[in-house]
Write a structure and sequence with these properties.
The protein is an alpha+beta fold and about 170 residues long. It folds into 2 domains: about 35 residues, no CATH class; about 100 residues, 2-Layer Sandwich (HIT family, subunit A), CATH 3.30.428.10. A 5-stranded antiparallel β-sheet has the order 3-4-5-7-6, covered by helices on one side. The protein starts with a strand and ends in a 21-residue tail after the last strand.
Length: about 170
């Protein structure tokens, strides 16, 4: 199976190419063609640290949710892939599906636990110019309550305050 390393594709095991070789080696080769099944981690990434998974309030497949360390509203959560992915666009399609399912689950749980929640903001910052401060994909789920801000009109457009009112 091809693996990408430094932009080049390599074959993990050349025996996989030849049926005659596979028959000849019989059961003498214990090569595992499934590859490394553990998620990749970046040792310098705060979201890759093993203690982050221990802080999980919920998980689903390749993603988990933790409380935001600097919440903008009570109940503010972050949904993170277990695997190190620098931003949303580098998440796999499966990770994005897992995140979508987890977001829906968390939304329902938050609304059940706090009837004052009447809306949500969801956001993803990709790159420093967009405000991303930790280079590990994370989706913000922010519960909103009536009156928690004087004029919520414009929602996520508030990243550029003069663009909120339209």
């Amino acid at each position: 199976m091809p693996r990408s390393r430094g932009g080049k594709h390599e074959l993990a095991n050349l025996h996989a190419l030849c049926a005659k070789c596979n028959r000849t080696k019989s059961n003498k080769d214990d090569t595992d063609f499934r590859g490394d099944l553990t998620p990749s981690r970046d040792p310098g990434c705060v979201f890759c640290a093993p203690e982050r998974v221990k802080e999980a309030v919920a998980d689903n497949g390749g993603v988990f949710a933790i409380k935001d360390k600097y919440p903008v509203a009570p109940g503010h959560l972050l949904i993170l892939p277990r695997r190190h992915a620098p931003d949303f666009f580098t998440m796999t399609s499966q990770e994005r599906r897992d995140a979508d399912d987890l977001l829906r689950y968390l939304r329902n749980r938050i609304v059940e636990d706090d009837p004052a929640v009447q809306g949500f903001n969801m956001g993803v910052n990709c790159g420093p110019a967009a405000g991303q401060t930790i280079a590990h994909a994370h989706i913000h789920l922010v519960p909103r309550r009536a009156g928690d801000t004087p004029d919520p009109r414009g929602g996520v457009r508030g990243v550029i305050p003069e663009k909120m009112g339209y």
